[in-house]
Structure formats: structure tokens, C-alpha cells
Amino acid sequence: MPADPLFIIVLLAVVAVAIVLVLGLGGFAGGGAFNKRHSNRLMRWRIIAQFIAVLLILAYIYLRRKAG
């Protein structure tokens, strides 16, 4: 399973969501100019990254169930 390219892509998508989430939470906790400038942009990127990650997870499940 870990050698499967689609599985690796799914993992990378999930890690990308986590990174954007941590950046957003860090900016929110710190407040200040960074939060004012980037909070909405980070929220949009997180939502887009989550959408892509969910689609990839569903594709992985669909393809593995069909293959097995």
C-alpha cells in the first residue's frame, strides 16, 4: 500500500492540508499584521486543499475497491 503512487499523493494532500491549517492557526494565534493580511487567503487555500484531498481519498477508495 505505501508503494502505491495514488496512496502517496493522498498522503501529500493530507499533509498539505495540515500545513495550511497550522499556518492559519499560527497566524490567528499571533494576530497582528500577518493575520490581517493573510487569514482569508489561508482559509481559502485550506478549503481548496481539503476539497482536493477528499476527492483523492474517494478516488483511492473507489479504485482500490474496484481493483480488489
Automatic annotation (TrEMBL):
The keyword ATP-binding does not apply. It holds the Pfam family HIG_1_N. InterPro entries: Hypoxia_induced_domain. Residues 1-68 form the HIG1 domain. Keywords: Membrane, Transmembrane, Transmembrane helix. The chain crosses the membrane at residues 6-33, 45-63. This is Twin transmembrane helix small protein. The lineage of its organism: Bacteria, Pseudomonadati, Pseudomonadota, Alphaproteobacteria, Rhodobacterales. The keyword DNA damage does not apply. It comes from the Bacteria. PROSITE patterns: HIG1.
